From TrEMBL:
UniProt keywords, alphabetically: Membrane, Transmembrane, Transmembrane helix
Membrane is among the record's keywords: yes
Annotated TM spans: 40-58, 381-402
Protein name as annotated: Transmembrane protein
Length: 440
């Protein structure tokens, strides 16, 4: 225990007398300055290294990570980690829509039925009646009516096909791979915009035709808006025409003027549900509905006026009510036409196909992490080197300057005041002459 005590005292004495400055000098004052400089050196050095050590350990380091040729799964995993400035540049910044988006539209069964066909064309082969109570009757209009329906079906199909071909050739441009949520949102908006624009474009074509017919008051060959008659006067045929009236309106003032069309014989009259005759055949088709096409009784009425030998007779059946459809069984034909007869667009798009076409060669992101012990230790060594040079240069000079300044102030104070009776006054303290002689 005694030895330990002596060892501690020896250690403390060594620390007190430690001098890394001027340790070989024999001048006591220089030795004292060196010991004081040493104490300040270690105090400042330890304090600075401690502060820098805490700062470096709390400081976050930003590092760049690079993933080469990432797969879709890797991309999604990294995306879910929410790294800072996560980017995956595309090798192909433009990708054609057709490479990841396809449409497989299904059309209303009306277009594939016997109603949209040329089997109605030859009225003499179809109908078993030749005379009608009024003109035009259904047997006179059917060939034009259903041929026009076929034309609309073919036009809609061709319009959709051509538009899709052009649409598939357009390019989807992204400089970086986008997230699947954003991709789905943008593609759904794109699909909706394409469908609306296509329907509007198709509708405008027929609206233009209707406007031309209405504004020019063109006489219909089927006598649906004008009736042309003639009488012989003095051996000369004098034509006479008048505007056709439908129920309570006239085509001269109202283009949307119609009446229900049907069959009429001297002994019988039958009206066809939903079938209307307007000022023009286009208007007639637009104003009609699909009600009769789903009604067994209505079809039986039509067939009762047909020749059994007619090719269309055995093929004329009602539409299938059980097939899924977005339209009602008594839907306006105009609405179906405006929608290009489409039941479902059946669009298919794939984020994975887009990702593969984009082909990102690498993904980069930044991560913030605490520095390692080796990193902190290495930096502290560098800081120590700089502090060591600065402290060893400035501390001895600073201590020497301070002590010298203090000594000068002390020397002047001895000469400030002189008092009689062999005594001096030093800072308001009377010091005998004998003591001053000892200090000299």
């Amino acid at each position: 225990m005694v030895h330990l005590y002596k060892l501690i005292r020896l250690l403390l004495k060594s620390l007190v007398e430690l001098n890394i400055f001027n340790k070989y000098s024999r001048d006591e004052r220089t030795q004292k300055n060196g010991r004081l400089s040493t104490k300040l050196y270690f105090l400042i050095l330890i304090l600075c290294l401690f502060i820098f050590g805490i700062y470096l350990s709390l400081e976050k380091q930003t590092r760049t990570k690079l993933i080469l040729n990432p797969t879709k799964i890797q991309y999604e995993t990294l995306q879910n980690e929410s790294f800072d400035e996560f980017q995956c540049p595309c090798n192909h910044i433009s990708v054609k829509y057709g490479d990841f988006l396809q449409f497989h539209p299904t059309y209303h069964q009306l277009c594939s039925s016997v109603f949209a066909s040329n089997l109605w064309y030859n009225a003499y082969e179809v109908w078993n009646i030749t005379n009608s109570c009024y003109y035009p009757s259904f047997q006179n209009l059917a060939s034009f009516y259903f041929s026009l329906l076929l034309t609309f079906c073919q036009s809609a199909n061709e319009t959709v096909s051509n538009s899709l071909t052009q649409f598939y050739a357009l390019e989807y441009i992204t400089s970086n791979v986008i997230q699947e949520i954003q991709f789905n949102y943008e593609i759904m908006s794109l699909i909706e915009s394409f469908q609306v624009q296509l329907q509007n474009s198709f509708r405008q074509q027929w609206n233009l035709l209707q406007s031309v017919l209405a504004n020019n008051q063109i006489i219909s060959v089927r006598k649906t808006n004008f009736v042309l008659n003639g009488k012989i006067v003095n051996g000369t045929l004098v034509p006479h025409s008048y505007i056709k009236q439908h129920e309570n309106c006239t085509c001269g003032t109202n283009l949307i003027c119609y009446e229900t069309v049907g069959f009429c014989t001297p002994s019988r009259r039958d009206y066809i549900k939903g079938m209307r005759i307007g000022c023009y055949m286009v208007e007639s088709l637009f104003l009609s509905t699909t009600e009769c096409f789903y009604d067994e009784l209505c079809i039986d009425i039509i067939k009762s006026y047909m020749r059994i030998s007619a090719p269309i007779y055995s093929k004329l059946n009602i539409l299938n009510k059980t097939l899924p459809s977005q339209y009602k069984t008594n839907e306006s034909i105009e609405k179906i036409i405006n929608n290009l007869f489409i039941e479902q667009w059946n669009e298919f798009y794939s984020y994975e196909m887009y990702f593969n076409q984009c082909q990102p060669s690498a993904c980069s992101y930044f991560i913030s992490q605490s520095p390692s012990f080796i990193s902190i230790f290495t930096k502290l060594i560098g800081i120590y080197g700089g502090l060591n040079i600065l402290l060893k240069f400035f501390l001895p000079n600073l201590i020497y300057f301070i002590r010298r300044k203090k000594k000068q102030q002390t020397g002047i104070s001895f000469l400030l005041f002189f008092h009689h009776d062999n005594q001096y006054i030093l800072n308001d303290v009377i010091i005998p002459m004998s003591i001053l002689l000892l200090l000299d």
